[in-house]
Design goal:
Layout: H1 2-16, H2 20-24, E1 27-31, H3 39-66, H4 69-74, H5 77-87, H6 91-111, H7 119-124, E2 126-130
Antiparallel strand pairs: 1-2
Helix pairs in contact: 1-3, 3-5, 3-6
Amino acid sequence: MLGVGLWFNIYMVKRYGGTPGKVLLGLRIVSVDGRPVDYQQAVLRYSVSFMLGAAASAATVIATMKMPEADYYALGVLERSSKIDQLAPAWCGLVTILSNIWIWGESIITLTNKRRRAPHDFMAGTVVIYAP
């Protein structure tokens, strides 16, 4: 999934100026000066989400590897998920908190500035415009 995220959020943004949903809605991600987004900007836009997702994935893999194989196959989906949460490293809780802060921060900042730029737009020097 991390590979899909990289392709979707970096390659698609660089190549087409946005993810498929943005393109279908006539939205385009561009530099603040109007130039097309380059790879460095696309990477910066996705960097925080990627790092938080990678950390959460690593915690899940670590927890799953701690679980005995017999338990893994004997438990149902909900019980297995609960067991994985119990076996997750202590820092997994911090990753969850940071992810929530990032998501809520993105929403609040996007809704409270004139150009509707999210923190990842400020980091990368980008803006989303309507360009049908």
